[in-house]
Amino acid sequence: MEMLLAPAHWRDNGRAPAPGAAQTIMRDEDCVEFLQWCLPRLNLRWSGYRKVRRTVCKRARRRLREIGLRDLESYRAYLRDHSEEWARLDAFCRISISQFYRDRGVFDDLSRRVLPELAAAASKRGARTLRCWCAGCASGEEVYTLRIIWDLSVRPLHPGVGFEILGTDAEATLLARAEAARYPRGALKDLPAAYLEAAFTQDSEAFSLRSEFRRDVTFRLEDIRRAQPDGPFDLILCRNLAFTYFAAEQQTAILGSIAARLAARGYLAIGAHEQLPAGAGDLFQATPKLPVYRESAPRV
After folding, report:
1. DSSP bridge pairs for 217
2. How far is it, in rounded angstroms, from Cα 245 to Cα 239?
3. Which residues pair with 220 in a beta bridge?
4. H helical segments located in 111-183
5. What is the mean pLDDT of residues 148-172?
6. Rounded to whole angstroms, how far apart are CA atoms 244 and 2?
7. Backbone angles phi, psi at 298, to 5 degrees
8. Are 1 and 246 contacting, i.e. CB atoms less than 8 angstroms apart?
9. Cβ(234)–Cβ(266) under 8 Å?
10. 235-274: per-residue pLDDT in tens?
11. What is the reported pLDDT for 297?
12. Euclidean distance between CA atoms 181 and 55, whole angstroms
């Protein structure tokens, strides 16, 4: 991740309810009250949803229409009687806003300092490959941004080092889009022009990533709250996900899982408006004013 446009099958398309269906009533204050009630029960936090609540409210309204309920109070009762519905609610509380080169300062730092430094260190110790994990990768924008940066700006200086990227996300629809690697112009508006020209072809409908920029990229359906890939990783990106939307206790657990999978002297990048929870251990802010962290000392 992260947030973003709702998947197409979740969007409120404005169609009238079927004849005989209950008219759904949902004021903003009703939705706020509902979210403040349900989010803690999902190990999520209300403060992360203030600005994006309308996205979740639209999805909730659509769900109420689907099951013929009039209001959120009725939905609360439905949740009490149908425990399996909590998984559906959890799914439409996922926010997945993403685009290429989002947070320019972070990707400039990764391009100019972090990735070249990791590549030089790998060459020095005789390592052939660097590994990166992007947690909450949405439709692949972040993953492919890193691939483009590496191939065009870093690999020419360190041709003996490979770069493998794993993107994980809990939403299968988004991962299918990532595999397709076709994007509207709006998703590419912050990508530097030289990268755009080199990495994409354009037709009348979208921009398609060239096949050479999909090498050594893997996507996996995985909810970071329940499973994480095996490390170690030289670089981990967990941006606009855990440290925005998850409850405090869940954030601490996720940070512990990330730290355990970070290679010695590896880097962690989080969202521009996020903060790590207390107890970040040996991680320190490696770049002033940017959310890029590193272990403070080599592991013994």
Report:
1. 165
2. 11
3. 168
4. 115-125, 141-149, 172-180
5. 97
6. 9
7. -60, 150
8. no
9. yes
10. 999 999 999 999 999 999 999 999 999 999 999 999 999 9
11. 60
12. 24
What are the strands, taking DSSP E only, across the chain? Answer: 129-135, 162-169, 182-183, 200-202, 207-209, 217-221, 233-238, 262-269, 283-285, 292-295
Asked whether the beta carbons of 236 and 245 are under 8 A apart, the reply is no
For residue 20, which amino acid is it?
G
| Length in residues, the chain | 300
Bridge partners of residue 283, in order along the sequence: 295
Domain locations in the chain as residue ranges: 8-92, 104-295
Is there a contact between 25 and 61 (Cβ–Cβ < 8 Å)? no
Cα–Cα dist 242/253, whole Å = 10
* CB-based contact 95:57 (threshold 8 Å): no
The encoded tokens of residue 128 equal 């052939």
Q: What is the CATH number of domain 104-295?
A: 3.40.50.150
Which two structure tokens, joined as six digits, stand for 123? 């060459």
Mapping DSSP to helix (H, G, I), strand (E, B) and coil, where does residue 227 land?
coil
Condensed to tens digits (0 to 9), the pLDDT of residues 101-156 reads 999 999 999 999 999 999 999 999 999 999 999 999 999 999 999 999 999 999 99
- Whether 169 and 137 have beta carbons less than 8 Å apart is answered as yes
Assess contact for 115 and 145: CB atoms under 8 A: no
119, 154 in Cβ contact below 8 A?
yes
Spatial distance between the Cα atoms of 118 and 130, rounded to a whole number of angstroms: 8
Q: Give the pTM.
A: 0.88
Question: By three-state DSSP, how is residue 41 classified?
Answer: helix
